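Technical annex, item 7. During the second reporting period the consortium partners agreed on a shared format for inverse folding records so that results from different sites could be compared directly. Each record opens with the tokenized structure and is followed by the designed sequence. A conforming record, contributed by the partner at site C, is shown below for reference.
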């Protein structure tokens, strides 16, 4: 597994590569992208009551749909997502017998989209919150192994390490598609800063869990079912080019 910079290259979905795009919602306005959404999504937007959340929902879906439209030979607003019983969106249609896999995450003004073929994936982005109580949250959500790992770090590093652990855990339950119903203390990730490793699910199957990039006050992670190369873009103009 390697992480490459996507630069200005076009996304060309394959089973060997996972593409990850970083979005900055503060540079975009959801009203410009409503035409990408289906009717039921447009109704959902009406029920979202703040602009950041509207931006998160509309812009990330607009990008996913624009990317999928090439493979499904449909215009974006005709692409309908289905949902598993835990709310994970997916497209039931195949592309040349391949399943089109994607996942979305957002936190405040930033978001992540991951997209690939035939590889179950989950992404998570989280803005670091310095006001939370690390002890009580890790007690509640972390496995025994993770709690032990966390205690080995100096106190002044624990907020950082906690959030790295959090995004890895979230990306795993999102890749599996169960969300929190999976049981956050049912599995462990590595808390080592640069440790790229695997997570075992409840059936002892390996899932590959990676810390992605860190910037400003944000942590990010990606989990995938099959080890693949990662192509990452964090250029704002890349997103604008996709949407125009
Ligand atoms: C819903 C959940 C999957 C992610 O929630 P989140 O971290 O608040 O939100 P994110 O921004 O990362 O992800 C939201 C996106 O994930 C996707 N999603 C929704 N349910 C999903 C599921 N079961 N599996 C994978 N992806 C899912 C959707 O695309 C959604 O965005 P959209 O509604 O704009 O389309 C779930 O894990 C959750 O409720 N987490 C709560 C947080 C928590 O307690 N974490 C403790 C960690 S230690």
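Designed sequence (site C submission):
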């Amino acid at each position: 597994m390697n992480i490459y910079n996507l630069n200005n290259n076009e996304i060309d979905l394959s089973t060997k590569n996972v593409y990850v795009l970083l979005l900055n919602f503060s540079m975009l306005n959801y009203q410009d992208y409503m035409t990408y959404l289906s009717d039921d999504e447009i109704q959902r937007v009406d029920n979202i009551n703040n602009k950041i959340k509207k931006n998160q929902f509309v812009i990330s879906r607009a990008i996913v749909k624009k990317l999928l439209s090439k493979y499904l030979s449909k215009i974006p607003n005709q692409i309908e997502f289905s949902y598993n019983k835990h709310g994970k969106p997916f497209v039931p249609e195949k592309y040349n017998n391949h399943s089109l896999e994607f996942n979305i995450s957002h936190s405040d003004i930033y978001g992540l989209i991951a997209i690939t073929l035939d590889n179950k994936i989950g992404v998570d982005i989280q803005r670091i919150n310095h006001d939370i109580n690390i002890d009580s949250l890790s007690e509640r959500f972390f496995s025994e192994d993770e709690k032990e790992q966390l205690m080995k770090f100096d106190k002044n590093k624990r907020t950082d390490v906690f959030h790295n652990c959090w995004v890895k855990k979230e990306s795993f339950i999102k890749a599996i598609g169960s969300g929190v119903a999976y049981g956050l203390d049912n599995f462990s990730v590595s808390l080592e800063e640069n440790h790229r490793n695997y997570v075992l699910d409840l059936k002892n199957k390996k899932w590959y869990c990676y810390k992605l990039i860190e910037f400003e006050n944000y942590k990010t992670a990606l989990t995938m079912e099959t080890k693949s190369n990662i192509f990452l873009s964090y250029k704002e103009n890349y997103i604008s080019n996709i949407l125009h």
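The pocket of coenzyme A is lined by residues 56-57, 60, 86-89, 103-106, 122, 124, 141, 166, 169-170, 173-174, 177, 179-180, 184 (CB under 6 Å). Helices lie at 39-46, 51-72, 134-141, 144-151, 158-176, 236-243. All partners now use this format for quarterly exchanges.
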